[in-house]
């Protein structure tokens, strides 16, 4: 297995504040990894250590088999790493051509090369003479990417590059960027606090929490088998119920539910995603009352208070419902569980 990046035992503090603690992970060559976590958990710090803008207090960073931090220290300009920041950080008074050309050796700064780089990020070469403030936010981010691509990096680091863009532009720019990087075969790490963005952009997702990596896995693993309840709740909507687990079954307010127990038995909690809970057409299943309805256009989020069954506490669950007829608070419904939940200790 060849790794574009290997990080081991990485520690970083600023003053007395410990920001990263024993961070370790590997990134396969040619892959796309998203690092996701709440604001302030240390994502940007990790990226800046990999880029070489900061030195770690302890630990080893290896890029393409070469140690760049540890026994050796290789500064940012001698690492084959591209970096695109949240605001693009373009030079405001320079033209697009000058901004992109900054990433090229002087003799390679030809009009043809700049046009080729702009074309890679789906920008017409006629933009070359504009200044950044004459471009939209999405276009500015694509120029920043072109500038980073000019250096032909082995590893591209994207630090929330889409977060300043509005929803439509954001999805479109994300698709263009993902496409460019995949075509160029560049190993990419994206930092984001947007969970759907992490799940859709990357083939591996690393969830960060308070300076540690809580879990690294495929988007599907992270969503359907999160390591603990906080990770489950961070990465998507989660319904978490008290349960009693025996074998691979959990008895909870939603009845007898199949679970992945992971060795958890007895008093426990069970986690389901809202789309695993279905309102039945004929009222069959566990009975409950709709308590609130959040209308979101193509879907509705229903809050349902379940009837109390013997020995089971009454609980409220959130159910996602697509394009079906509206339900209103007070209506009685039957609900059932689809698929398998995940059990966690108390
Ligand atoms: N140069 C610095 N000096 C002192 N503290 C810093 C420095 N850089 C970052 N920090 C602190 O480290 C913590 C982690 O910051 P970091 O930017 O890595 O988080 P993040 O997960 O990227 O957050 P966000 O999603 O909000 O960008 C924050 O509390 C921040 O204030």
Account of the protein in words:
This protein is an alpha+beta fold and 346 residues long. The protein contains eight helices and 20 strands. The chain has helices spanning 43-51, 96-101, 111-120, 137-150, 167-184, 195-201, 219-224, 229-235; strands at residues 3-14, 17-28, 32-36, 58-63, 66-69, 81-84, 155-159, 187-192, 204-209, 212-217, 239-246, 249-252, 255-260, 266-272, 277-279, 286-295, 299-306, 316-322, 332-337, 341-345. The strands form four sheets. It has a six-stranded mixed sheet with strand order 6-7-8-3-9-10, sandwiched between helices. Strand 4 (58-63) and strand 5 (66-69) form a beta hairpin. Helix 4 (137-150) runs parallel beside helix 5. It is globular and about 75 Å long. The model has no long low-confidence stretch (mean pLDDT 90). Adenosine-5'-triphosphate (ATP) binds at residues 14, 19, 37, 39-45, 193. One of its GO terms (molecular function) is ATP binding. It comes from Rhodococcus tibetensis. Keywords: ATP-binding, Cell membrane, Ion transport, Iron, Iron transport, Membrane, Nucleotide-binding, Transport.
Helix-strand layout with pairing:
Blueprint: E1 3-14, E2 17-28, E3 32-36, H1 43-51, E4 58-63, E5 66-69, E6 81-84, H2 96-101, H3 111-120, H4 137-150, E7 155-159, H5 167-184, E8 187-192, H6 195-201, E9 204-209, E10 212-217, H7 219-224, H8 229-235, E11 239-246, E12 249-252, E13 255-260, E14 266-272, E15 277-279, E16 286-295, E17 299-306, E18 316-322, E19 332-337, E20 341-345
Parallel strand pairs: 3-8, 3-9, 6-7, 7-8, 13-20
Antiparallel strand pairs: 1-2, 1-4, 4-5, 9-10, 11-12, 11-14, 12-13, 14-20, 15-19, 16-17, 16-19, 17-18
The structure holds adenosine-5'-triphosphate.
Adenosine-5'-triphosphate binds next to α1.
